Amino acid sequence: MTGTCNTKHQKLIAWVEEMVKLCQPARIHWCDGSAAENQSLCDLMVKSGTFVKLNEKLRPGSYLARSHPSDVARVEDRTFICSKTKDEAGPANNWADAAEMKKIMLERFAGCMAGRTMYVIPFAMGPLDSPICKIGIEISDSPYVVVNMRIMTRMGQTVLDKLGADGKYIPCMHSVGAPLKPGQVDVAWPCEPDPQKKYIVHFPDEPAIWSYGSGYGGNALLGKKCLALRIASTVAKKEGWMAEHMLILGLTSPANKKYYVAAAFPSACGKTNLAMMKPTLPGWKVTTLGDDIAWIRVGKDGHLYAMNPETGFFGVAPGTSAKSNPHALTACAKNTIFTNVVLTPDGDVWWEDMGVPAPAKGIDWEGKDWTPDCGRKGAHANSRFTAPAAQCPVIDPDWQNPEGVPLSAIMFGGRRPSTIPLVNEAFDWEHGVFMGSACGSETTAAALGAAGVLRRDPFAMLPFCGYNMADYFGHWLSFVNKTDRSKLPKVYFVNWFRKSADGKFLWPGYGDNSRVLKWICERVEGTGKAQKTAIGNIPTPDALDVSGLNIAPADLAQLLAVDIAGWKNEAADVETNYAKFGKALPKALSEQLAGLRKRLG
């Protein structure tokens, strides 16, 4: 591997030289983002055993990786926000003193790249000519990180050209934490095996990111959760915009009117599926702009504009099927990196709930022989595909518009078997912020252990907000002062997961969620019918288009019912969650909670 340092940015060159002295790599490679470089790195990883090349006819340009069993997901308990004070980090974050943490990081990184190549990865979040584009430079000793970052971000020489001789960048240090002694044989997935020695550290006041010990996903691809949410949320507050854990979709009506919607859901609530939904309503069309992150700002016309700062999908494989998300399957049909799924005998991949028969035998995510009846899952529950967004068959023509797209509506949601109706419209912006702040979802056995436990996850940002969430609520509330109130998007709360008394889902979900989106568009236009209730505006019984849908009138009535007793319990639980924020909680939200209680009687 060779890589030329094609930049005149002296501050950047000096920082890289400083990190070389600290980390002591055997080689340095400046990434240019080219196809030739990418192929060279993939070939290198096939040779080292990190990658298995998949069948070129069945899955062209694609590879499978298997991580170490200790390195399979984000490590929230090892994720730190090192703001000046603990109060600035807030009760939802792990805080550590910046000076003390920097000392720990310097000790960890000293000599950590011995025997390895140091890759200098210039990347941009957002189109290069966007007013809120942010440039990062990730230094990493992992070729897996390089090829994933090439899919997930705008990466390479074009970014250095944009940076010029004195542009601003966010330094992002990463190491798998596995130095090689002379003659030591490397392993297929190098990492720090002890979870308590992994560190995902954010210094919002610099801003900078230091990540040590993990080679996986959001721990190692530092443009994703670390920069695009935790650091970006703090930068956005200072600069007057928002960095959100939201999908963005376009919805076109049969009359060819287009609406853009952003939506925030906690995990296991169908965010990616909704972003690429195939509507069941004739004449309606959904296009995808992003499935995970939205950067939102006030445009020149006073409306809120959203853009997806990423260029790829880092999707959870299990459960992705032709029924749940046919467009995601098409997106990962080629040029995709799969991590921790099953390798089939013909050189393809498989995972649970893929909607196709399991192979008679295969190799599981731990590299062991596997059969469908062996008593264990073949793919890890958090196994992934990294696929270029441009390969999504319903990618929106404006998905890379540097100005973003104007939002007609913002949706929040959660997995709630009772109490929360199918769809509920906020009375106004403040009420909408209240809805987002009260967002909760019931855990599933597959994802988080004990099933049915309600976890409050405000704005679906609990693991991703880089500062005190009470101040974050205040930042959302401040948008009434940044533009004309009438130009703000309408706000909704949805729940596809309400169940009947015998435990059956009342709503079919998937493509039929387009029926709820249709009503939202009608409300935006001022034509949709609604009834005012204690909790917000709910569709009238005849307002939802249920044509061709086999749903009992009693089930529909239950989906739209306001359970007063359940909502009183909900209000009490929200109050308990608010108490964590003490006096920092914005007064407007206390008033919203009091107003809800009064309306409930």
Brief overview, please?
With 601 residues, the chain is of the alpha+beta class.
Describe the structure.
By secondary structure, the chain is of the alpha+beta class. It folds into 3 domains: 184 residues, 3-Layer(aba) Sandwich (Phosphoenolpyruvate Carboxykinase, domain 1), CATH 3.40.449; 269 residues, Phosphoenolpyruvate Carboxykinase, domain 3 (Alpha-Beta Complex), CATH 3.90.228.20; 80 residues, Phosphoenolpyruvate Carboxykinase, domain 2 (Beta Complex). The protein contains 17 helices and 31 strands. Strands 1, 4, 5, 6, 7, 8, 9 and 10 form an 8-stranded mixed β-sheet that branches. Strands 14-12-13-25-29-26 form a 6-stranded mixed β-sheet, with helices on both faces. The longest helix is centred in the middle third of the chain and has 17 residues. It is globular, with a radius of gyration of 24 Å.
Tell me about the largest β-sheet.
8 strands, mixed
Work out the radius of gyration: 24 Å
Oligomer: single chain
Number of helices: 17
Determine the N-to-C terminus distance.
Answer: 70 Å
Helix content: 25-40%
Mean pLDDT: 96
**How many extended strands?**
31
Percent in strands? 15-25%
Give me the secondary-structure category.
alpha+beta
Stated plainly, the CATH topology of the largest domain is called Phosphoenolpyruvate Carboxykinase, domain 3
Described by the principal axes of the CA atoms, the overall outline is: globular
Number of domains: 3
CATH hierarchy: architecture of the largest domain? Alpha-Beta Complex
Unreliable residue stretches:
445-449
What top-tier CATH class of the largest domain fits best? Answer: Alpha Beta
